[in-house]
Amino acid sequence: xxxxxxxxxxxxxxxxxxxxxxxxxxxxxxxxxxxxxxxxxxxxxxxxxxxxxxxxxxxxxxxxxxxxxxxxxxxx
Length: 76
Ligand code: SF4
Hints:
single chain; little secondary structure; High-Potential Iron-Sulfur Protein, Chain A; 8% strand; globular; binds iron/sulfur cluster
């Protein structure tokens, strides 16, 4: 399996990635909302009911279903 995204890695910190959307930095990202989660994001390539899944923004590394980053885009 692909490795998990480390919230401390440079790309993750640049995008404000967190494993828990409620922990997002809302000062830095004022458009964040708690109903925005990786499993509802366009770039999450697993089924929505999975605990974690690959994110294309992070090169296919695993992100938490309930995570978030500033590249979040609502799944079409
Ligand atoms: Fe989560 Fe989407 Fe950001 Fe990937 S791009 S980490 S799926 S919010």
